[in-house]
């Protein structure tokens, strides 16, 4: 009878050790699931970060393009204005030169016509 009790206790201890191993395996599976969730969370955050960076770069390129357009328009306006100013100056210089030539011609004509008399 004593042998049966010892044998029963041993089986009970063995079942308890088996239950403990099973609980340990379950804890390990839970830790593995937690690591997997953490890895997925980091991957998702990385994808979101990359998406935001791409959107920011796209926005920056659009802003740069618009800034370039505005700069070109402003430069074109400045160039057109400077060209107009240069034309007016050239035109005024040309008129002054012609007027001076006419004045000299008239002065010479007047001087020579007086000296003939």
Shape: rod-shaped
Give the count of helical stretches: 1
Which percent range fits the helix content?
Answer: over 70%
**Order of helices and strands, N to C?**
H
- Overall pLDDT metric: 86
Detailed description of the structure:
Residues 12-100 have a biased composition (Basic and acidic residues). Residues 1-117 are annotated as: Disordered. Residues 1-11 have a biased composition (Acidic residues). The chain has 117 residues and is mainly alpha-helical. The protein has one domain. It is 98% helix and 0% strand. The chain is built from 1 helix and no strands. The chain has one helix at residues 2-116. The longest helix is centred in the middle third of the chain and has 115 residues, at 2-116.
Please sum up the structure shown.
Residues 1-11 have a biased composition (Acidic residues). This protein is mainly alpha-helical.
Protein topology:
Blueprint: H1 2-116
Region (Disordered): 1-117
Biased composition (Basic and acidic residues): 12-100
Biased composition (Acidic residues): 1-11
Question: Which key features would you list for this structure?
Answer:
1 helix, 0% strand, mainly alpha, single chain, rod-shaped, 117 residues
């Amino acid at each position: 009878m004593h042998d049966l009790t010892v044998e029963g206790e041993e089986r009970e201890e063995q079942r308890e050790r088996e239950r403990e191993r099973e609980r340990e395996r379950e804890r390990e599976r839970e830790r593995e699931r937690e690591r997997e969730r953490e890895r997925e969370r980091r991957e998702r955050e990385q994808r979101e970060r990359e998406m935001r960076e791409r959107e920011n770069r796209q926005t920056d390129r659009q802003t740069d393009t618009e800034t370039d357009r505005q700069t070109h328009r402003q430069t074109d306006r400045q160039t057109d204005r400077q060209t107009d100013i240069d034309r007016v100056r050239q035109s005024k210089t040309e008129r002054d030169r012609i007027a001076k030539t006419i004045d000299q011609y008239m002065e010479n004509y007047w001087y020579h016509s007086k000296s003939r008399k």
